[in-house]
Amino acid sequence: MGKQLKFNFNPFKEGLNHVLGTLEKDIMEVLWKHGESSVKDILDTLPAGRNISYSAVITVTNRMTKKALLQKRKVGKAYFYTPIYDREKFFEIISKKVVEGISGFSLQSAMVHFVDYMSQMDPEKIEYFSKLIESKRQSLSKKR
């Protein structure tokens, strides 16, 4: 896993489409659910109603391999693709990079908006964040 994951964050998209194209997202969902799969397996498992060609899936999976999202292995004439990161690790990496990126604009503003957003989504999160901050404070004071 020497390659570094490459992605662009689009704040105006929803869900995984913040960082993945529509077909990339669909491919990742298939692979996270079913594990290692061939292009044919992926194509057969994509959401119904999508008119996607075999060559489009080949092109996108190869690009995703170059972006360090997938690894591939050859079996006979077919390639099989596997996500490099499971869903949780992927979200962890993306979240960390996004927070690092927005912190470059204004860390204070980013944190204020994050806490406001989380408190609207789930008011109990405020207590969770308070405990998390206190825990970090204590571990930092022990290191000094």
From TrEMBL:
InterPro entries xrefs: BlaI_family, WH-like_DNA-bd_sf, WH_DNA-bd_sf
Domain of life (superkingdom): Bacteria
GO biological process, one term: negative regulation of DNA-templated transcription
GO molecular function, one term: DNA binding
Keywords in alphabetical order: DNA-binding, Transcription, Transcription regulation
Pfam name, any one: Penicillinase_R
Similarity annotation: Belongs to the BlaI transcriptional regulatory family.
Entry protein name: CopY family transcriptional regulator
Organism: Candidatus Brocadia sapporoensis
